[in-house]
Design a protein that fits this description.
Number of domains: 1
Number of strands: 11
Helix content: 25-40%
CATH topology: Rossmann fold
Radius of gyration: 17 Å
Structural class: alpha/beta
CATH architecture: 3-Layer(aba) Sandwich
CATH superfamily: Class I glutamine amidotransferase (GATase) domain
Strand order of the largest sheet: 5-2-1-6-7-11-10
């Protein structure tokens, strides 16, 4: 897809029990794109809490949302509640059907899968649920950011920034995206090499898996159910 001309309308979905960095990392980038407006979307305009208790406030209801050049779908534990939410799923389908950009972050990719838009697409997501992508008809790609036409997916949480910079380049060109990166001084030098299951110490990996075990059981059950709903064959 080519650079989008004119004023950009960007819609960023938020919801209860989401991971705020999925949203705020991307917001930091998109709010700096020249000649654009960011709409923070939810069903109503009441403040809500992310999974760690941070208060976030929507400014536009889903019903009020204009036609968007970009729809951003973050993830987090609250993502499970969206997989059968037809108001949210129809918004995603509409955006994809119009050929406009959808940017899915972390387990927000699974919400897009529930909307049926991952079928036949390359995608990535958080490492803890990466193996569920085929249940939604996607081709899994082990990458921090994956672009497939008007769909861009980012892996877990902090990858929201990487993906947002990629989307900014698609919308406004590489120079604008690089200026935003420079202003943010986004040049990560993490103090530990535990940001991937491949490099994390075994005891760290085991503790992290144990902490999220119950949620991943729920997400796996949901993936099975969605695959059946979408008529997608899969093997365990």
């Amino acid at each position: 897809m080519s650079i989008v001309p004119g004023h950009l309308k960007i819609g960023m979905l938020i919801f209860p029990r989401m991971d705020q960095l999925d949203f705020t990392g991307a917001f930091e980038v998109f709010s700096r794109i020249p000649n654009s407006t960011v709409h923070v979307l939810w069903k109503d305009k009441s403040p809500l809490h992310d999974v760690r208790g941070l208060i976030l406030t929507p400014d536009t209801t889903l019903a009020e949302s204009p036609d968007l050049d970009l729809l951003v779908v973050p993830g987090g534990y609250g993502q499970e509640d969206l997989t059968d939410d037809e108001e949210v799923l129809s918004l995603i389908r509409k955006q994809m059907g119009r050929g406009r950009y959808v940017y899915a972050i972390c387990t927000g990719v699974l919400v897009c899968g529930a909307a049926g838009i991952l079928q036949g697409r390359r995608a990535t997501t958080n490492w803890t649920v990466f193996d569920l992508l085929p249940y939604f008809g996607a081709t899994p790609v082990k990458s921090r950011v994956v672009e497939d036409g008007n769909l861009v997916c980012a892996a877990g949480v902090s990858a929201s920034i990487d993906g947002a910079l990629k989307v900014a380049a698609l919308l406004r060109g590489d120079k604008v995206a690089q200026q935003i990166q420079l202003y943010m001084e986004y040049a990560p030098e993490p103090p530990f090499q535990s940001g991937s299951p491949k490099t994390a110490p075994s005891e760290v990996l085991e503790a992290t898996l144990a902490e999220g075990a119950q949620m991943n059981i729920a997400r796996t059950a949901t993936a099975h159910r969605i695959a059946k709903r979408l008529g997608i064959a899969h093997s365990d």
